[in-house]
Amino acid sequence: MEQNQVTPSALERRIDISVSLADIEKEVDARLKRMARTVKMPGFRPGKVPMKIVAQTHGGQARGEAVGAAVEKAFGEKVRADNLRVAGYPSIEPKDGAAEGTLEFTAVFEVYPDVVLGEFAGRKIERPVLEVGDAEVDKTIEVLRKQRTSFKAVERAAAQGDRVVIDFTGRMGGEVFDGGQAQDFPFVVGAGSMLKDFEDAVVGLAAGEGKTFDMTFPEDYHAANLAGKQVQFEITVKAVEEPVLPEVDTDFAKSLGVADGDVAKLREEVKGNLEREVKRRIQSRLKEQVMDALIEVAPIEVPKALVQAESNQLADNARRDLEMRGLKTKDIPVDPSWFKDQAERRVKLGLIMAELVKTSELHAKPEQIRALVEEMAQSYEDPSELVRWYYAQPERLAQAEAVVIEDNVVEWVCAKADTSDKDVAFDELMGNNAA
């Protein structure tokens, strides 16, 4: 058996493999004999089928398996001898012009790149800093109040923030268009559920009043038949209701899960949840900066096979997400190529972080994993139940372990880089959504 290796590119490898036909024939004969012990055929008892008939019936299968096993063995011996780390699966191609008594193949595959980390010194990383205080708690409670807004009827003209109930008819060229007509239609003025020009037309109208107005749909409107078109609406206001926010009292606290209705306890729980969420968002921002730094200090080429596999996985995740939303993926094709850039970044980071974790011993310690799980459990009514859930299956615990490893990498890089604290505004960090 002979092999020789050629290196046509940075990560691609080609290995020529020659296997002996005599060895193949011996293996075929051995496989047929094993088959003959159990093979069943009409007119023969099990194990009594003549070898000639077994060979005629199963010879092709036995030969294919024998050749595959020989090539796989030769390939494995060569990559182990050369200490190659194969990425993905090799492509085995037959070669023409083989020497007498041999079969020749070429195995084409990729190997993992060598990861060499550069220096982090001088690379600037900003660690967001935010202390949760009474002002942040107040803002969050205000958001919670708005989420529980009720409405009461008023005898006045509609204003921003009011809920109105209207009848409307829309015409284009004098004809009512599809979706242009409704009765007893409710919406909140200024909430953005309707086009702004439509909402503005309602402002100033009281129950029983109406108006006719012209409106032009945006050029990028989702309904192609209306995009950029001018229409005329006729509206009649049937009810105007103003928003009523709940008082921060015992009933409000109970509605948010505080059994005894203690408002002080509610504020404590809101603050605790906020502190965990702020910590998570700060860590996420810090992590993004660290990941960018890792890619910059360790530029590597990544195996196409790994990028393709990651792209396929991301596409599968997207399909599952669409199906969970009630959409049929056969009607919305999801192409793995859409995720190529994201997949390449993920593969690069995976390889770089794996090398860093190994060389700098940043593996997750059991006590770190436990602390993370217990921290995540604090936002649940029964924290111990979530802890048991994580520890019930290794796969679940592996998710927490991965988070701890990422956090270890983040802290290690921050210690090496030029890291400074930077105050961040609450609204900016929370994306104007404190809830």
UniProtKB/TrEMBL annotation:
Compartments, as annotated in UniProt: Cytoplasm
Please verify whether the record's keywords include Membrane.
Answer: no
Can you list the GO cellular component terms from the UniProt entry? cytoplasm
Pfam families in the cross-refs:
FKBP_C, Trigger_C, Trigger_N
Residues of the signal peptide: none
Entry EC number(s)? 5.2.1.8
Q: Does the keyword Cell division apply?
A: yes
Q: Which GO terms describe its molecular function?
A: peptidyl-prolyl cis-trans isomerase activity; protein folding chaperone; ribosome binding
Record's keyword terms, sorted = Cell cycle, Cell division, Chaperone, Cytoplasm, Isomerase, Rotamase
- Biological process, per Gene Ontology: 'de novo' cotranslational protein folding; cell division; protein transport; protein unfolding
- Reaction catalysis annotation: [protein]-peptidylproline (omega=180) = [protein]-peptidylproline (omega=0)
InterPro entries linked: PPIase_dom_sf, PPIase_FKBP_dom, Trig_fac, Trigger_fac_C, Trigger_fac_C_sf, Trigger_fac_ribosome-bd_bac, Trigger_fac_ribosome-bd_sf, Trigger_fact/SurA_dom_sf
Can you give the residue ranges of the PPIase FKBP-type domain? 161-221
Q: Which family does it belong to?
A: Belongs to the FKBP-type PPIase family. Tig subfamily.
Query: What does the UniProt entry state concerning the protein's domains?
Result: Consists of 3 domains; the N-terminus binds the ribosome, the middle domain has PPIase activity, while the C-terminus has intrinsic chaperone activity on its own.
Function description = Involved in protein export. Acts as a chaperone by maintaining the newly synthesized protein in an open conformation. Functions as a peptidyl-prolyl cis-trans isomerase.
Q: What is this protein called?
A: Trigger factor
* Source organism of the structure: Thauera aminoaromatica
Lineage runs:
Bacteria, Pseudomonadati, Pseudomonadota, Betaproteobacteria, Rhodocyclales
From the UniProt record, report the name of the gene that encodes this protein.
tig
